[in-house]
Design brief:
The structure holds two protein chains of two kinds. Chain A is 51% helix and 11% strand. Chain A is α+β, with helices and mostly antiparallel strands. Chain A folds into two domains: 116 residues, no CATH class; 66 residues, no CATH class. Chain A has a four-stranded antiparallel β-sheet with strand order 2-3-1-4. The longest helix of chain A has 27 residues. Chain A is elongated. Chain A starts with a helix and ends with a helix. Chain B is 74% helix and 2% strand. In chain B, strand 1 and strand 2 form a beta hairpin. Chain B has 16 helices and two strands. Chain B has one domain. Chain B is an all-alpha fold. A two-stranded antiparallel sheet of chain B has the order 1-2. Classes of the chains: A alpha+beta, B mainly alpha.
Chain lengths: 193, 395
């Protein structure tokens, strides 16, 4: 009993992608939010089954693009029309035509940065460790097994009830994700001595 | 309009065929009246309408070839539509006859022997810009487009008959060289029909500019045709919101592409600041032409860019309908902006002949397209990727 209290999550294996899809939909309908699926390949329809909404990344990219646009215009206006005024081939100091290529490129660059770093932020990456790795069998998620994991941080998580639910919807090899306590204890003992 | 869901064939085109034919003939009759009143205005209106409807067919030819070249899946359900548009293109050759047969002197300054006699530059260009070569080239363009279109269409119909190995491969084999020929013929047709209106001026990117508008108009036309079909309960299960989404993405992309090319042309000429080049833009910046130039910047780029940027409007059939009509309208204005300053220098004013020729040629063009569309299954029924295309889902 004491070990299940330390569980930071629970992991269940499912027969095949279609079993996993059905299970994900049931977990979603049961009101769980902090759960994830682990499969060797992309499974179509899993987003809908898990109730994942469309990504907000687009809005981050839009903000990045607008920032890039404004930075480019301001920078070139400052350089060409304020700080270092040089007349080039008789054109006005602030010639927006000449600024378009830089503005275009910086809009793209900032959008690209916003895409990459926004994606990393939304996925909480980089992470050096994840509780899922407390399980040994999770390695098979890159080979031939289909897993569903639920975090103990989910308000609906109850160690025993959640286990029963997972088993009732076809989950096998259900296991708790428990930090290796003994290793931590040993470390503490080492420090004391 | 009725269809047979089991064979995917249009059974009855209803009133639409007669209606289109009537509209077309009425438009052409009105244009004929205009021709007697003012042949210069008539030919400029006529050329705008002629290039507009040709560009729809050319865009469809490109769409079909690029579909085969990239081995696309999502567009299988709309392929027959672009194929039918592409094989309607030869009809436009008939509409070219008045221009090459008679209108050439009203339109093209270089076709006047006395003008060439006093103009060193035109004498220099005469081996290319002369009436015989102009007609000969126009014939070559249509031969190329007709042959490529016919081979692709015939192979596609053979695929409908029975399962046969290698038909998709053959269509791809045709599309590869076809794309090169298409790029060259489209570029030179744009040079001939529109750029040579101002024979002193030249821009090497002009063909690409015309291509961008052509594909946009073809995509917009196809989207509208799907909306029309679905309002008659045709292809409602086969063409889904996912296909509208992809058409929307392409319309968005080529709105940006058009702008990229339009600005590239303007930018170099603005930077170089050489009078014989800048004069072309000067004509389009004088008087109320400035309004049209600015209108193009906003209506052909800023507004469609802002509207189609997000995912939601591309997945709304209503928004896609509005934007398709919008893009067809601005494509016409774009062509008007290319052609009409040749006639109305310093000041434009729309003529009723602009509308009459547009409706006249358009009515006949869409009538021929409708007849073709009703002549075979309206989707490629035996394409190996048809099922996948119908169930296609955007990520």
């Amino acid at each position: 009993m004491s070990s299940t209290n330390k569980a930071v999550g629970i992991l269940a294996e499912f027969e095949n992608p279609s079993e996993l899809l059905k299970a994900a939909a049931k977990i979603r309908d049961a009101g769980y939010k902090k759960f994830d699926c682990h499969t060797p390949f992309p499974v179509h329809g899993l987003d809908a089954a898990m109730g994942i909404k469309h990504s907000k990344l687009g809005w981050i990219v839009l903000c990045g693009g607008i920032t890039g646009f404004l930075v480019a215009i301001t920078m070139q206006w400052w350089m060409s029309a304020v700080d270092y005024r040089v007349v080039v081939s008789g054109k006005p100091l602030f010639s927006f035509q000449a600024f378009v290529p830089i503005t275009f490129e910086l809009t793209i660059l900032f959008s690209a940065f916003a895409t990459v770093f926004g994606m990393l932020a939304l996925n909480v990456l980089p992470q050096f460790h994840h509780p899922i790795f407390y399980s040994d069998s999770i390695a098979r998620a890159t080979d031939d097994a289909f897993f569903l994991s639920i975090s103990a941080g989910d308000p609906r998580f109850r160690a025993d009830e959640t286990r029963t639910l997972l088993e009732s919807i076809g989950g096998c090899n259900v296991e708790y994700l428990i930090p290796p306590a003994s290793a931590a204890d040993n470390e503490q003992e080492d420090q004391h001595s | 309009m009725k269809w047979d869901k089991s064979t995917y064939r249009i059974q009855d085109t209803g009133i639409y065929g007669k209606l289109l034919l009537a509209v077309g003939i009425a438009g052409l009759a009105a244009s004929a009246v205009g021709f007697n009143a003012d042949s210069k205005q008539f030919y400029h209106s006529y050329l705008t309408a002629y290039v507009f409807w040709t560009s729809v067919g050319l865009g469809a030819l490109f769409f079909t070839m690029v579909h085969h070249l990239v081995d696309a899946t999502w567009s299988v359900v709309v392929r027959r539509l672009s194929e039918c548009l592409m094989v309607t293109l030869p009809v436009m050759f008939i509409f070219l006859l008045p221009i090459v047969g008679h209108g050439i002197h009203d339109l093209y300054h270089w076709s006047h022997a006395d003008a060439v006699a006093h103009d060193v530059l035109l004498q220099h260009k005469a081996p290319w810009l002369n009436t015989g070569m102009f007609i000969g080239r126009s014939v070559i363009y249509f031969v190329c487009w007709t042959v490529i279109g016919a081979v692709l269409y015939k192979t596609s119909l053979r695929q409908d008959q029975k399962h046969e190995e290698g038909l998709l491969g053959r269509m791809r084999m045709v599309s590869g060289p076809g794309m090169v020929i298409f790029a060259l013929t489209l570029t030179f047709s744009a040079f001939d029909w529109m750029m040579s209106l101002d024979p002193h001026w030249y821009s090497t990117i002009f063909g690409v500019y015309f291509f961008a508008g052509s594909l946009l108009s073809a995509l917009a036309f196809m989207t509208l045709w799907i909306v029309f079909l679905q309002s008659n309960q045709i292809l409602t299960d086969e063409i889904t919101v996912e296909h509208f989404h992809d058409l929307g993405k392409l319309i968005f992309a080529f709105t940006v592409f058009w702008t990229y090319i339009a600005f590239s042309q303007y930018f170099l000429i603005w930077y170089g600041n050489i009078p014989e080049e800048t004069v072309w833009y000067l004509h389009r910046w004088e008087g109320n032409w400035k309004t049209i130039s600015l209108l193009l910047v906003f209506a052909h780029f800023v507004i469609p860019f802002a509207v189609l940027l997000s995912r939601v409007p591309k997945r709304s059939v209503r928004m896609m309908t509005i934007m398709s009509i919008w893009m067809l309208a601005v494509h016409w204005i774009d062509l008007y902006w290319l052609i009409s300053p040749n006639l109305h220098k310093h000041h434009f004013h729309f003529s009723w002949m602009d509308a009459a020729t547009f409706v006249g040629i358009g009515g006949i063009f869409i009538f021929c397209f409708l007849k073709r569309f009703a002549a075979q299954p309206i989707i490629p029924v035996n394409d190996p990727k048809l099922r996948e295309s119908i169930h296609f889902v955007n990520i």
